[in-house]
C-alpha cells in the first residue's frame, strides 16, 4: 500500500514513480503512533482490571485503601539495627563518616570532580 500511495497521481492518470514521497512519512508515523496507542490501551486495560480484582478482595473490609496500606506497612516494619563500634578509634571514624559534614564533603568532592572532568 505504501509503494502504491507513493506512486499515486491525480484522478484518471497513471502512476508516476516516487511522485509523493511525503506520504511515506505519513504512513510510517501513522503506523508507529497507532501501534503505541493500541499498546497503551491494552496495558491500561490490563492494569485497571488487575486493580479491580485486587480491590474486590477487600470490598467487605471497613478500612479504605490508604489505611490498609498503613497497616500492612506497620506489620512488615522491622527495627533498624544500628552498629556502634566499641573501640574508641573506630567510634571516632564511624561518627565522622555518619555525620552530615562528611556527606556534604563527599557531595562537594563529587561536584569538584565533575567540574574538572567537564573542563577537560
UniProtKB/TrEMBL annotation:
Q: Which residue ranges does the record assign to the Ion transport domain?
A: 3-57
Membrane topology note:
Multi-pass membrane protein
Bilayer-crossing residues are: 23-50, 93-112
Q: Which GO terms describe its molecular function?
A: voltage-gated calcium channel activity
The answer to keyword Glycoprotein applying to this record is no
Gene Ontology, cellular component aspect: monoatomic ion channel complex
Domain of life where this protein originates: Eukaryota
* Cited InterPro entries: Ion_trans_dom, VDCC_alpha-1_subunit, Volt_channel_dom_sf
Q: What is its main location?
A: membrane
* Keywords annotated in UniProt: Calcium, Calcium channel, Calcium transport, Disulfide bond, Ion channel, Ion transport, Membrane, Repeat, Transmembrane, Transmembrane helix, Transport, Voltage-gated channel
Q: Where in the cell is it found?
A: Membrane
Stretch forming the signal peptide: none
This chain belongs to the protein called: Ion transport domain-containing protein
Organism from which the protein derives? Cirrhinus mrigala (Mrigala)
Amino acid at each position: 500500500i505504501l509503494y502504491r500511495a507513493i506512486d499515486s497521481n491525480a484522478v484518471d492518470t497513471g502512476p508516476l514513480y516516487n511522485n509523493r514521497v511525503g506520504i511515506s512519512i505519513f504512513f510510517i508515523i501513522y503506523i508507529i503512533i497507532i501501534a503505541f496507542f493500541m499498546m497503551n490501551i491494552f496495558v491500561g486495560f490490563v492494569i485497571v482490571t488487575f486493580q479491580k480484582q485486587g480491590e474486590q478482595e477487600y470490598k467487605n473490609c471497613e478500612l479504605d485503601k490508604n489505611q490498609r496500606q498503613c497497616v500492612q506497612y506497620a506489620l512488615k516494619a522491622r527495627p533498624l539495627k544500628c552498629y556502634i563500634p566499641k573501640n574508641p578509634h573506630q567510634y571516632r571514624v564511624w561518627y565522622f563518616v555518619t555525620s552530615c559534614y562528611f556527606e556534604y564533603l563527599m557531595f562537594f568532592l563529587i561536584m569538584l570532580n565533575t567540574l574538572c572532568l567537564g573542563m577537560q
